[in-house]
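Look over both lines before class:
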Amino acid sequence: MGLLDILLGRTKPVAPDLDRLFALPSAAVTLEAAAGFTPTGRGAVCFATVEGAAFEQTHREVQALLDADAGRAGSPVELSRDAYGYSWLVSRRAPDQLTQLVNDLHAVNSSMEVNGFGPQLLCSLAGFTDEQDRPLALVYLYKRGTFYPFAPLPGSAQRRDNALELQVKAALASDLRIEQDLSRWFPVWGAPGL
Protein backbone atom coordinates (compact mmCIF):
# COMPACT_ATOMS: atom_id res chain seq x y z
CA MET A 1 0.00 0.00 0.00
CA GLY A 2 1.47 3.34 -1.05
CA LEU A 3 1.37 6.84 0.36
CA LEU A 4 -1.33 7.89 -2.13
CA ASP A 5 -3.56 5.01 -0.95
CA ILE A 6 -3.13 6.15 2.65
CA LEU A 7 -3.91 9.78 1.80
CA LEU A 8 -7.02 8.80 -0.20
CA GLY A 9 -8.25 6.50 2.56
CA ARG A 10 -7.99 3.33 0.54
CA THR A 11 -7.33 0.21 2.50
CA LYS A 12 -5.68 -3.01 1.55
CA PRO A 13 -8.20 -5.88 1.48
CA VAL A 14 -7.87 -8.41 4.26
CA ALA A 15 -6.36 -11.67 3.03
CA PRO A 16 -8.70 -14.58 3.67
CA ASP A 17 -7.57 -16.79 6.53
CA LEU A 18 -9.49 -20.04 6.25
CA ASP A 19 -7.87 -21.31 9.44
CA ARG A 20 -10.20 -18.97 11.34
CA LEU A 21 -12.93 -21.52 10.63
CA PHE A 22 -11.22 -23.83 13.13
CA ALA A 23 -12.28 -21.46 15.95
CA LEU A 24 -15.94 -22.44 15.44
CA PRO A 25 -15.95 -25.52 17.74
CA SER A 26 -14.68 -23.52 20.74
CA ALA A 27 -17.06 -20.66 19.87
CA ALA A 28 -19.90 -23.22 19.84
CA VAL A 29 -19.16 -24.07 23.48
CA THR A 30 -19.38 -20.37 24.38
CA LEU A 31 -22.53 -19.96 22.29
CA GLU A 32 -24.26 -22.85 24.06
CA ALA A 33 -23.31 -21.53 27.50
CA ALA A 34 -24.27 -17.91 26.73
CA ALA A 35 -27.39 -18.33 24.59
CA GLY A 36 -28.40 -22.02 24.55
CA PHE A 37 -27.64 -22.63 20.86
CA THR A 38 -26.24 -25.97 19.73
CA PRO A 39 -24.90 -27.07 16.32
CA THR A 40 -27.34 -28.55 13.79
CA GLY A 41 -24.65 -30.43 11.87
CA ARG A 42 -25.37 -28.41 8.72
CA GLY A 43 -23.03 -25.98 7.04
CA ALA A 44 -22.44 -24.53 3.61
CA VAL A 45 -20.05 -22.61 1.41
CA CYS A 46 -21.55 -19.90 -0.84
CA PHE A 47 -19.95 -18.64 -4.04
CA ALA A 48 -20.83 -16.80 -7.20
CA THR A 49 -22.17 -19.35 -9.66
CA VAL A 50 -19.46 -20.93 -11.78
CA GLU A 51 -20.00 -22.94 -14.93
CA GLY A 52 -17.62 -25.10 -16.92
CA ALA A 53 -15.43 -28.14 -16.82
CA ALA A 54 -12.87 -26.69 -14.39
CA PHE A 55 -15.53 -26.18 -11.73
CA GLU A 56 -17.04 -29.63 -12.35
CA GLN A 57 -13.56 -31.13 -11.85
CA THR A 58 -13.14 -29.19 -8.60
CA HIS A 59 -16.57 -30.34 -7.40
CA ARG A 60 -15.63 -33.97 -8.15
CA GLU A 61 -12.35 -33.54 -6.24
CA VAL A 62 -14.17 -32.14 -3.20
CA GLN A 63 -16.72 -34.96 -3.41
CA ALA A 64 -13.93 -37.59 -3.58
CA LEU A 65 -12.03 -35.96 -0.71
CA LEU A 66 -15.07 -35.93 1.56
CA ASP A 67 -16.22 -39.39 0.39
CA ALA A 68 -12.96 -40.72 1.81
CA ASP A 69 -14.34 -39.99 5.28
CA ALA A 70 -15.47 -43.48 6.29
CA GLY A 71 -17.69 -42.28 9.15
CA ARG A 72 -20.10 -40.53 6.85
CA ALA A 73 -23.35 -41.79 5.43
CA GLY A 74 -24.88 -40.54 2.20
CA SER A 75 -23.63 -37.81 -0.06
CA PRO A 76 -21.01 -35.68 1.70
CA VAL A 77 -21.65 -32.48 -0.21
CA GLU A 78 -24.65 -31.33 -2.22
CA LEU A 79 -24.50 -28.55 -4.78
CA SER A 80 -27.54 -26.27 -4.92
CA ARG A 81 -28.52 -22.82 -6.14
CA ASP A 82 -30.58 -20.30 -4.24
CA ALA A 83 -33.26 -17.92 -5.49
CA TYR A 84 -30.65 -15.17 -5.89
CA GLY A 85 -28.49 -17.17 -8.30
CA TYR A 86 -25.69 -18.05 -5.88
CA SER A 87 -24.35 -21.59 -5.58
CA TRP A 88 -23.98 -23.45 -2.29
CA LEU A 89 -21.98 -26.56 -1.44
CA VAL A 90 -23.85 -27.95 1.56
CA SER A 91 -22.42 -30.43 4.07
CA ARG A 92 -24.44 -32.41 6.61
CA ARG A 93 -23.06 -34.10 9.71
CA ALA A 94 -24.40 -35.31 13.03
CA PRO A 95 -24.97 -32.35 15.41
CA ASP A 96 -22.12 -33.53 17.65
CA GLN A 97 -19.65 -33.51 14.73
CA LEU A 98 -19.02 -29.76 14.44
CA THR A 99 -15.27 -30.29 14.20
CA GLN A 100 -15.74 -32.60 11.21
CA LEU A 101 -18.20 -30.13 9.65
CA VAL A 102 -15.63 -27.35 10.00
CA ASN A 103 -13.07 -29.62 8.35
CA ASP A 104 -15.54 -30.13 5.47
CA LEU A 105 -16.09 -26.38 5.07
CA HIS A 106 -12.34 -25.74 5.18
CA ALA A 107 -11.70 -28.46 2.59
CA VAL A 108 -14.34 -27.05 0.22
CA ASN A 109 -12.99 -23.50 0.55
CA SER A 110 -9.38 -24.64 0.18
CA SER A 111 -10.12 -26.74 -2.89
CA MET A 112 -11.95 -23.89 -4.58
CA GLU A 113 -9.16 -21.45 -3.71
CA VAL A 114 -6.39 -23.78 -4.94
CA ASN A 115 -8.24 -24.38 -8.21
CA GLY A 116 -8.53 -20.65 -8.94
CA PHE A 117 -12.08 -20.05 -7.70
CA GLY A 118 -11.08 -17.95 -4.66
CA PRO A 119 -12.49 -14.70 -6.12
CA GLN A 120 -15.93 -16.37 -6.41
CA LEU A 121 -16.02 -17.44 -2.74
CA LEU A 122 -18.46 -15.31 -0.71
CA CYS A 123 -19.06 -16.90 2.68
CA SER A 124 -19.30 -20.07 4.72
CA LEU A 125 -21.79 -20.76 7.46
CA ALA A 126 -22.46 -23.23 10.25
CA GLY A 127 -26.02 -23.71 11.50
CA PHE A 128 -27.21 -23.67 15.12
CA THR A 129 -30.57 -23.90 16.87
CA ASP A 130 -31.90 -23.54 20.40
CA GLU A 131 -34.65 -25.31 22.38
CA GLN A 132 -37.31 -23.11 20.77
CA ASP A 133 -36.04 -24.15 17.28
CA ARG A 134 -34.82 -20.63 16.51
CA PRO A 135 -32.27 -20.82 13.68
CA LEU A 136 -28.90 -19.11 13.87
CA ALA A 137 -25.93 -19.15 11.53
CA LEU A 138 -22.39 -18.09 12.20
CA VAL A 139 -21.31 -16.70 8.85
CA TYR A 140 -17.66 -16.35 7.79
CA LEU A 141 -17.09 -13.63 5.20
CA TYR A 142 -14.35 -14.97 2.96
CA LYS A 143 -13.14 -11.62 1.63
CA ARG A 144 -13.21 -9.90 5.05
CA GLY A 145 -11.84 -12.70 7.22
CA THR A 146 -14.57 -12.05 9.82
CA PHE A 147 -17.65 -13.73 11.29
CA TYR A 148 -21.12 -12.43 12.03
CA PRO A 149 -24.31 -14.00 13.41
CA PHE A 150 -27.43 -14.26 11.25
CA ALA A 151 -30.72 -15.01 13.03
CA PRO A 152 -33.81 -15.10 10.80
CA LEU A 153 -37.10 -14.92 12.66
CA PRO A 154 -38.97 -18.23 12.29
CA GLY A 155 -42.19 -17.97 10.32
CA SER A 156 -41.58 -14.41 9.17
CA ALA A 157 -41.02 -13.09 5.69
CA GLN A 158 -37.38 -12.07 5.69
CA ARG A 159 -37.11 -10.50 9.13
CA ARG A 160 -34.16 -10.87 11.48
CA ASP A 161 -33.81 -11.14 15.23
CA ASN A 162 -31.41 -8.20 15.60
CA ALA A 163 -31.36 -8.40 19.40
CA LEU A 164 -30.23 -12.04 19.26
CA GLU A 165 -27.57 -11.21 16.67
CA LEU A 166 -26.14 -8.49 18.92
CA GLN A 167 -26.30 -10.81 21.95
CA VAL A 168 -24.33 -13.47 20.02
CA LYS A 169 -21.86 -10.81 18.81
CA ALA A 170 -21.13 -9.82 22.41
CA ALA A 171 -20.90 -13.42 23.61
CA LEU A 172 -18.44 -14.49 20.90
CA ALA A 173 -16.25 -11.37 20.81
CA SER A 174 -13.33 -13.19 22.44
CA ASP A 175 -13.79 -16.44 20.45
CA LEU A 176 -14.15 -15.20 16.86
CA ARG A 177 -13.03 -12.22 14.83
CA ILE A 178 -16.44 -10.53 14.60
CA GLU A 179 -17.25 -8.17 11.72
CA GLN A 180 -17.59 -4.74 13.33
CA ASP A 181 -19.29 -3.07 10.34
CA LEU A 182 -22.93 -4.09 10.86
CA SER A 183 -23.78 -3.08 7.28
CA ARG A 184 -21.73 -6.09 6.19
CA TRP A 185 -23.93 -8.49 8.14
CA PHE A 186 -25.65 -9.57 4.95
CA PRO A 187 -28.81 -11.65 5.29
CA VAL A 188 -28.46 -15.14 3.82
CA TRP A 189 -32.18 -15.78 3.35
CA GLY A 190 -32.96 -19.37 2.46
CA ALA A 191 -29.36 -20.53 2.85
CA PRO A 192 -29.36 -24.31 2.39
CA GLY A 193 -27.09 -24.94 5.40
CA LEU A 194 -29.20 -22.90 7.83
